[in-house]
Each structure stands twice: as C-alpha cells, then as structure tokens.
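Progress against Task 2.4 (sequence-to-structure conversion) is shown through the following example record, which the project officer requested during the mid-term review.
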Amino acid sequence: MHVNSKASLTAAVLAIVFAAVPMSAATIFSTTLAGANETPPVTSAGTGSMTVTLSGDLLSVSVTFSGLTSPDVASHIHCCGPVGIAEPIAVPFTTFPTGLTAGTFSSSYDLTEVGVYSAAFLTANGGTAASAETAFITGLNDGQTYGNVHSANFPGGEIRGQLAAVPEPASVFLAGGVLAALALLRRKTSTARR
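Structure tokens generated for the chain above:
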C-alpha cells in the first residue's frame, strides 16, 4: 500500500466517523456528593449526586440526596477555585426543597439573568450578568465548581462534590472509531509488507 493510499484511507475513515456522529452543543457535568468531600470533611452517611447540563446560556440542574443527619436547609453551586477550597456561592437553588433528609430537585437557570447569581458572586465578578456568566462557565469548564447540600447539623455543607465534565457518548464513539480505523490501517500495512 502506498503512502498516498494510506492517507486517503485514513481521511475516508475519519470523514465517515465524523459524519456519523452528531455533535451536541450541550456539556454535562456530574459529581457524587459525600461528607468526606466537604471542606473540612464531615462525618455523615449522607450521599447524593448532582448533574448539571450547560446548553448555551441555559443551565439545567438535577440533585438527588439521601441519608442526611438532619433536614436540609439549602443547596447550590459554588465557584471558582481549586478542589478542596471553600468558595462563594455562585448559583443558589432558591426553590430547593428544604426540611428533608432525602429528596430530589430539578430546575433550569438562564445564565443571562442577574437574579440567577448570588449578590456576592455577581459583585466579585464584574457586577453584570454577562461577566458573572463568563466567570461561572469558565469555572465550570475548568473543574473549579462544586455542588453541595447544607443541613441543620452542618450549615457549612453536609455533602459536597466537585463537578467534572462527563464525556458525551458521541465523543466516546468517535474516539473508538478513530482507534479502530487506525488499527485497521496498521493491519493492512502489516499485511501488505509480507
């Protein structure tokens, strides 16, 4: 097999893989919530999960929690700093159900609205929704945001988790397709040399 035909085969395979995989505009971030993740860590059998989907200016949030040592009092996303550091509240979940030791919550937030952000986060990040949104999305993409659930026993937070991007299935499929194409190309090259 000639170099040009190898390059052509590789290009053809990559074109097919890219054409077959629709690219999503949404990015999903997820975490497991636990007392050991709090700063400082707390002793709690409480657990939970938080999934955040960013699609343009829309932030969709889903929280599940159970086993808290006392009723919950709040939940929100904090931003923007390294893992293990307490950061200010960026997006408070103002309609989060309180008074529970277990529950679920889902809501969506328009990140272009000033009221989505805590006053402190808004002030610290330029005072406008646009500047707060930029800081928040940068923190989210850089792994510098965390979600938590606060309770009466642990007003500083009972369960917490650092939000991290989840590879979308299309990206995983694409990576697998590229690897398969390269393996096939290598195999054909090895066979041609014999």
